[in-house]
Design a protein that fits this description.
Length: about 350
């Protein structure tokens, strides 16, 4: 039996097995074996195509990837959002390589990548899908682009990305697995587990050839969460759904679950840019030299949750990051203008920061 046939057999058995406490361990082992087989297929595929594929150097403050089936208007959307000149045609597979562009918004330079349209089966390598999806792993945000007349495309694309190891709009499960030389499988849970038993955990780890390990689980997790943690190569990234060609549904009700745009007419793009900024979690920090007016033209682009120390380190790790004493803050995170704050103070969008060293 080939690996593909074995995968189909296991998928069929999982679908036919009713999930309950009696079958929990068995289903967990089947899912773990399925994940291991798929991982093996991907490893073999990488060996065969060594030296080939797509490679794009990350640039700018963040990277957004356009993913969608052929002929949904990704190239036109890229050209509208950025300074790229991706070839546009009214036929399938116009884009045959990765086309980069730069979206400038709120002072940030956001790299946007247009990859060849994926097809169903891409996660298994169909249509050079593995090379295409490998680019997604470097993205800070995935933008799923679908034809507004075919909203069912969205779920199909999400399925392909899931099979390829991407976990859209989800946080990494709080699970730690430390392999050791002996002692068997030791499980420590900080919360009550509704789905995982010690036997199920052991069965899953054994499928991955792990016989001795300490497992610490700090949140209620599913079988799939544990398998993802063991595999260790899943990509957790936010996503946006864009429903393009909205001009073709004038006077009709738009389907829910996405941002309707018309790349052809340039409609709905400002709302899309705002959502990209929001999903990336970017923020503007304006810098001020002591005794000078702040530079309000070129903000420092940081991520939400950043501190005074992070800003200092971004400017110069040795000159500021290691010597920062305090900062004076003007803006949303300060109670009054020029408030003195320590290195661990969390900043907000549009704060003005004046750094002081020791």
């Amino acid at each position: 039996m080939s690996i593909e046939e074995e995968i189909r057999r296991i998928e069929d058995e999982i679908s036919r097995t009713k999930y309950n406490k009696a079958t929990q361990k068995h289903i967990g082992e089947l899912k773990a074996k399925l994940a291991r087989l798929r991982e093996g297929m991907e490893t073999e595929a990488r060996k065969k195509r060594a030296g080939a594929g797509y490679s794009v150097r990350k640039q700018g403050d963040a990277t957004v990837l356009l993913v969608g089936f052929p002929s949904v208007g990704k190239s036109t959307l890229l050209n509208r959002l950025t300074n790229a000149e991706s070839r546009v045609g009214h036929y399938d597979f116009t884009t045959l390589e990765v086309i980069p562009g730069v979206l400038e918004y709120n002072g940030a330079k956001i790299q946007v990548l247009d990859v060849p349209g994926i097809v169903e089966g891409a996660a298994a390598g169909k249509g050079r899908g593995k090379e295409i999806l490998s680019v997604v792993r470097s993205a800070d945000l995935v933008m799923i682009v679908a034809d507004i007349r075919k909203p069912e495309q969205v779920e199909r694309i999400r399925k392909e990305l899931h099979l390829a190891g991407f976990r859209l709009d989800r946080k990494r499960p709080d699970i730690t697995i430390r392999k050791r030389d002996s002692g068997g499988i030791e499980v420590g849970a900080a919360v009550k587990l509704s789905e995982l038993t010690k036997e199920t955990i052991e069965g899953i780890l054994h499928e991955f050839r792990i016989r001795n390990a300490e497992v610490v689980i700090r949140q209620d997790c599913s079988v799939d969460d544990l398998i993802d943690a063991v595999a260790g190569n899943r990509v957790y990234v936010p996503s946006i759904t864009v429903l393009n060609k909205a001009d073709l549904l004038e006077g009709k009700t738009f389907p829910s679950g996405g941002i309707p745009v018309s790349a052809e007419r340039g409609e709905g793009l400002e709302k899309l840019k705002e959502e990209i900024w929001k999903k990336l979690g970017l923020m503007r920090i304006y810098l001020k030299r002591i005794g000078k007016e702040p530079d309000m033209k070129e903000p420092l682009i940081m991520r939400k949750g950043c501190t005074v120390r992070d800003v200092a380190g971004r400017i110069h790790r040795h000159a500021f990051g290691e010597r920062i004493s305090y900062a004076r803050i003007w803006g949303p995170s300060a109670r009054f203008p020029g408030q003195k704050k320590g290195p661990d103070h969390v900043l907000k969008d549009c704060d003005i920061v004046e750094l002081h060293t020791e």
